[in-house]
């Protein structure tokens, strides 16, 4: 029997039945004996009374009397002669277990012979005496037993219900339904059990929630970190790939989890690295070159992970994109190379003319003067070059303090044109400005002047004599577009993209001859970006060029670096200031 409550019911009923049976047997035994004793006494007394009543009667009298007596007493009465010879029998025949009582009686009459009176009491009659009507009793007993069974079953159900519930909750918990509880209704130990189960369930639910939260957090971190992370098992199969790794290793378009690394990565060098770490069980690192879908340099770091027994359990691959770092390194070394080359040119020149002077040119005052002039110009160029390089690196590192104030564009443009006036006159280049005097923007006056000055100087430099240059400012609402247009030599189409690069010059010999370093537009572009704007150029070779600078009218506070800390002199939209705030930054005078 499986159910506890059925078992309990059966046990209780069994015990009750056994108790009843024992009780009845006992009763039957004791009562049976008592009845037998009683029957004997009764029989004895009856026999004695009959014997006395018969004594001295005639056989005829006896025969008349005895049937009535037998019927009245419900017994069998017999008379036996000498030697047990039956003389007369009255009443029902005797049955098994009947009790007989004998008395000698002397009858009157001629014979006067002594006879034996035998009174026999039937056993059946005796049983009737104490058993009474069995039927109703049995029925009553069964009904009682039925009711008792129901009651016991109910009680058993009541007693076992909390246990059943506890079992159900335990099953639910093992099925990962954490947090379910039992209604505590029992008493004593049952109540303690349910309370304990409830506490356990709640604590499990809490712990599972914590574990899940942690799991989710770690998952989110892994998924969203910029480093690529891949987990491989000890046989080199991919177990986990985060988003960055999918992007970096170009894995997103095919299934990788569960695949062997060779199939998953499809990258010879990377698979070689994995095999090496699987074999040596030591961390390894390698730079990977990727060509598809775009050229990339990755730094792959592979670490073996061990279980508690020291067996290799997994491999952790961490991948970083170092394309930009490598590119910057290349640019930097190129820059150093270019810069050294640019610096060497004036130095060589200075050295050469100084040598010539020492070798005797000093004797001729005319030659001496010319050479010293050259030496002076070259050293001036050297100074500018060094200053430019320093400037550029300061701008690039955003260490250049900015001072944003309202600037009247017209005043600024006039300032720039005045600065280069002499220069333009030398080449008979007509300078003009087309700017609304009321136009104002919020910007750094000095940096903006540096930008415009560079562009105007270029326009003069790269425009043949008798040319013209126009500076314009167009209000476009939120922005202002400043432009410098010339009708000079123009820029070949293939060079347009590159003229903002450092040291890039379209015609190196000519540009260098003009004293240029090739850093001007590079500085301009950085400054424009620093001021939150953008720069572009339109040009046709042999026709002319126009440089455009778009700047926000009001500065975006988030984009700009902190204001300069050094105290500035009087400044403003109409304040005429010396060309360079930092000294020599502005190449205002191409002659040096
Ligand atoms: N207005 C222009 N017309 C034609 N070419 C120009 C013009 N402005 C610039 N360029 C070309 O772009 C190149 C880069 O200009 P950039 O101002 O950076 O250097 P640079 O003028 O040679 O030297 P510097 O550093 O002294 O200004 C120039 O060498 C020139 O070839
Ligand atoms: Mg220039």
UniProtKB/TrEMBL annotation:
Q: What is the designated name of this protein? A: histidine kinase
Any one Gene Ontology biological process term? Answer: cellular response to phosphate starvation
Q: What is its EC number?
A: 2.7.13.3
What topology in the membrane does the UniProt record assign? Multi-pass membrane protein
User: Which transformation does this protein catalyse, written as a reaction?
Assistant: ATP + protein L-histidine = ADP + protein N-phospho-L-histidine
Q: State the NCBIfam families in the record.
A: PnpS (NF046044), sensory_box (TIGR00229)
Q: GO MF terms on file? A: ATP binding; phosphoprotein phosphatase activity; phosphorelay sensor kinase activity
Q: Does the keyword Membrane apply?
A: yes
Region Disordered, as annotated, extends over: 553-592
All residue ranges annotated as the HAMP domain in the record: 157-209
Q: Where in the cell is it found?
A: Cell membrane
Provide this UniProt record's keywords sorted from A to Z: ATP-binding, Cell membrane, Kinase, Membrane, Nucleotide-binding, Phosphoprotein, Transferase, Transmembrane, Transmembrane helix, Two-component regulatory system
Where composition is biased (Basic and acidic residues), the residues are 553-577
Q: Name one GO cellular component term.
A: plasma membrane
Span of domain PAS: 214-285
Residue intervals of the Histidine kinase domain: 338-555
List residues of the PAC domain: 284-334
Record field: transmembrane: 12-32, 134-153
């Amino acid at each position: 029997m499986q159910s506890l409550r059925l078992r309990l019911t059966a046990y209780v009923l069994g015990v009750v039945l056994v108790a009843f049976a024992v009780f009845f047997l006992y009763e039957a035994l004791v009562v049976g004996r008592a009845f037998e004793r009683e029957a004997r006494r009764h029989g004895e007394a009856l026999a004695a009374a009959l014997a006395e009543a018969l004594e001295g009667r005639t056989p005829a009298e006896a025969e008349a009397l005895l049937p009535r007596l037998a019927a009245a007493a419900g017994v069998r009465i017999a008379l036996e002669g000498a030697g047990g010879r039956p003389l007369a029998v009255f009443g029902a025949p005797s049955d098994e277990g009947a009790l007989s009582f004998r008395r000698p009686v002397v009858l009157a009459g001629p014979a006067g012979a002594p006879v034996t009176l035998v009174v026999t009491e039937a056993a059946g009659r005796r049983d009737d005496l104490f058993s009474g009507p069995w039927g109703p009793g049995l029925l009553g007993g069964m009904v009682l037993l039925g009711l008792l069974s129901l009651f016991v079953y109910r009680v058993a159900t009541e007693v076992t219900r909390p246990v059943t519930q506890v079992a159900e909750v335990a099953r639910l918990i093992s099925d990962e339904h954490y947090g379910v509880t039992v209604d505590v209704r029992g008493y004593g130990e049952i109540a303690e059990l349910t309370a304990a189960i409830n506490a356990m369930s709640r604590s499990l639910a809490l712990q599972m929630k914590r574990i899940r939260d942690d799991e989710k957090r770690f998952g989110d971190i892994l998924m969203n970190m910029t480093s690529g992370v891949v987990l491989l098992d000890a046989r080199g199969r991919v177990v986990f790939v985060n988003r960055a790794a999918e992007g970096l290793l170009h894995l997103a378009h095919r299934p990788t989890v569960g695949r062997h690394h060779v199939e998953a990565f499809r990258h010879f060098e990377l698979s070689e690295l994995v095999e090496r770490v699987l074999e040596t069980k030591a961390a390894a690192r390698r730079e990977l070159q990727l060509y598809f879908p775009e050229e990339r340099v990755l730094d792959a770091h592979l670490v073996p992970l061990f279980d508690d027994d020291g067996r290799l359990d997994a491999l952790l691959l961490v991948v970083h994109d170092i394309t930009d770092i490598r590119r910057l390194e290349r640019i930097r070394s190129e820059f150093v190379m270019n810069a050294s080359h640019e610096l060497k040119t004036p130095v060589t020149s200075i050295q050469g003319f100084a040598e010539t002077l020492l070798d005797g040119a000093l004797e001729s005052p005319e030659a001496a003067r010319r050479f010293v002039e050259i030496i002076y110009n070259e050293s001036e160029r050297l100074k500018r070059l060094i200053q430019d390089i320093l400037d550029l690196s300061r701008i690039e590192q955003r260490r250049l303090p900015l001072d944003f104030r309202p600037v009247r564009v017209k005043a600024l443009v006039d300032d720039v044109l005045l600065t280069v006036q002499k220069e333009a006159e030398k080449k008979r280049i007509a300078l003009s400005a087309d700017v609304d005097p009321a136009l104002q923007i919020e910007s750094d006056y000095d940096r903006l002047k540096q930008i415009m000055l560079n562009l105007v100087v270029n326009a003069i430099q790269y425009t043949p004599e008798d040319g013209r240059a126009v500076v314009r400012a167009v209000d476009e609402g939120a922005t202002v577009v400043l432009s410098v247009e010339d009708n000079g030599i123009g820029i070949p189409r293939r060079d347009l993209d590159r003229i903002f690069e450092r040291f890039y010059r379209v015609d190196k010999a000519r540009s260098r001859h003009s004293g240029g370093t090739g850093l001007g537009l590079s500085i301009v572009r950085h400054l424009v970006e620093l001021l939150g704007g953008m720069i572009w150029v339109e040009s046709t070779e042999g026709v002319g060029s126009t440089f455009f600078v778009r700047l926000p009218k009001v500065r975006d506070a988030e984009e700009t670096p902190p204001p300069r800390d050094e105290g500035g002199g009087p400044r403003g939209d109409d304040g005429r200031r010396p060309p360079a705030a930092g000294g020599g930054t502005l190449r205002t005078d191409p002659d040096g």
